[in-house]
């Protein structure tokens, strides 16, 4: 999606006031629709009732309902209470409630909150209406204007000021959009007494030509150290080549600088995929606030999001790949690091990050990861007593309190898992009926049993010590 921001300049103050009143009514309509959606009202009923209530045409009302539904779904996805959503911003509202400032500063804060709450208008594009019916871009001799529908056959015109000199291309692009009749959405926002327009145009991507038919490129993005690990695999899942792209620029610097380099790194990945003629496999973008079990604990989830915008980088890779006609496959990231470090890092003598990228690539091809036979023999021989000894060893050797507690918690889960298997002879690798355990728990217990003793103070980068166990089935005193 391409978004162009511009300031609206009105011919007179009266026209501006008419639009401000429209924005106020639309914002009220959206908030009202939100409350009714919480109560279970359906779209058709709301669309019929709200038109007369807020003196808006059916398109404006429909867009208000859509925005309200989007806000509601967003709150639910983030595990926030939908009934406690505050339009205008919770942080600003909290500051106003505390009354920690007075006079002009308080009034300035109140005005800012009211602008965010009441100064909104959204109008979706429509291909059948040659762009946008309620808010249409029109090119005239004296400039580019936005025609705003403010009532039955009543329109207000505002000149679009997209910038000067280096931003002149914005106005030219808006003119091209107006003349091409492609659909575009317009969102109006009130800021510091001025009305700004945001024009959004959906990109039309070329047909997908590079698919997973000949293999894929698996991508694993790491927070510490900042790098992208990638692997190339053939259509059967065999490892062909791999590499790592360091990203030191994303650790610090201004927002614009980091954004620039995210695009550069995304270009590098897409270039690799294009040269090798393979699809790209990435982790799913829906990282929750509380994290996931397995690969994405809450702590790692927060670290990834805040250190270098993990989600933003993956989104850019998706966008650039689509522009090049390259298929992008998204997979569940759970346990990719654990499986990679245990199964492929010692086998191919690669880092755990490269190994994780390899698991992601194979998962994109639909391949399942089975625990190697020698690992299963080790697990079948593992006892609760040995894990209890490991727990005591960790208590004595690990100085870092947080890491020590983390290890002990993992060992306790592993002990509980082994105890649940005592009634199951052979300890078969399968989901366990009547329990909360899954096949992934075998990998987790394996990590506790073989990785923790190797390096209890930190996760090692070199897993060659596991090669004898993995290949030859040899292990010593746990």
Automatic annotation (TrEMBL):
Recorded GO MF terms: DNA binding
Highest taxon listed in the record's lineage: Bacteria
Keywords: DNA-binding
InterPro entries: Cas12f1-like_TNB (IPR010095), Transposase_put_N (IPR010094)
Name of the protein in its database record: Transposase
């Amino acid at each position: 999606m391409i978004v162009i921001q511009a300031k609206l300049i009105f011919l007179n103050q009266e026209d501006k006031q008419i639009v401000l009143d429209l924005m106020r009514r639309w914002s009220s309509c959206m908030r009202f629709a939100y409350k009714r959606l919480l109560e279970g009202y359906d779209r058709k009923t709301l669309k019929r009732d709200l038109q007369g209530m807020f003196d808006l045409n059916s398109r404006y009302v429909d867009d208000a309902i859509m925005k309200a539904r989007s806000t509601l779904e967003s709150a639910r996805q983030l595990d926030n209470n939908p009934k406690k959503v505050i339009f205008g911003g919770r942080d600003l509202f909290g500051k106003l409630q505390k009354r920690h400032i007075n006079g002009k500063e308080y009034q300035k804060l109140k005005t800012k909150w009211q602008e965010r709450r009441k100064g909104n208008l959204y109008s979706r594009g429509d291909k059948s209406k040659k762009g946008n019916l309620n808010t249409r871009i029109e090119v005239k001799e004296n400039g580019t204007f936005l025609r705003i529908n403010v009532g039955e056959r009543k329109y207000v015109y505002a000149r679009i000021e997209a910038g000067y000199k280096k931003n002149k291309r914005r106005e030219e692009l808006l003119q091209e959009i107006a003349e091409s009749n492609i659909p575009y959405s317009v969102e109006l926002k009130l800021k510091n007494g001025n009305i700004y327009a945001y024009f959004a145009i959906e990109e039309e991507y070329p047909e997908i030509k590079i698919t997973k038919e000949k293999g894929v490129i698996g991508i694993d993005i790491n927070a510490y150290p900042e790098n992208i690990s990638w692997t190339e695999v053939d259509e059967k899942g065999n490892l062909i080549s791999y590499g790592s792209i360091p990203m030191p620029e994303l650790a610090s610097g201004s927002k614009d600088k980091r954004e620039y380099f995210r695009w550069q790194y995304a270009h590098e990945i897409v270039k690799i995929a294009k040269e090798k003629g393979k699809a790209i496999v990435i982790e799913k973008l829906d990282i929750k606030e509380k994290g996931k079990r397995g690969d994405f604990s809450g702590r790692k989830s927060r670290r990834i999001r805040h250190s270098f915008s993990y989600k933003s980088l993956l989104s850019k890779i998706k966008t650039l790949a689509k522009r090049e006609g390259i298929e992008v496959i998204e997979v569940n990231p759970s346990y990719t690091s654990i499986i990679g470090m245990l199964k492929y890092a010692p086998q191919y003598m690669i880092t755990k990050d490269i190994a994780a990228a390899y698991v992601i690539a194979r998962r994109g091809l639909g391949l399942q990861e089975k625990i190697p036979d020698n690992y299963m023999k080790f697990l079948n021989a593992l006892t609760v007593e040995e894990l209890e000894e490991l727990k005591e060893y960790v208590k004595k050797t690990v100085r870092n309190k947080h890491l020590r507690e983390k290890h002990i918690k993992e060992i306790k889960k592993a002990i509980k898992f082994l105890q649940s298997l005592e009634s199951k002879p052979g300890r078969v690798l399968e989901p366990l009926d009547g329990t909360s355990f899954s096949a992934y728990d075998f990998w987790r217990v394996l990590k506790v049993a073989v990785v923790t003793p190797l390096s209890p103070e930190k996760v090692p980068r070199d897993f060659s010590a596991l090669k004898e166990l993995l290949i030859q089935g040899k292990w010593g005193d746990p």
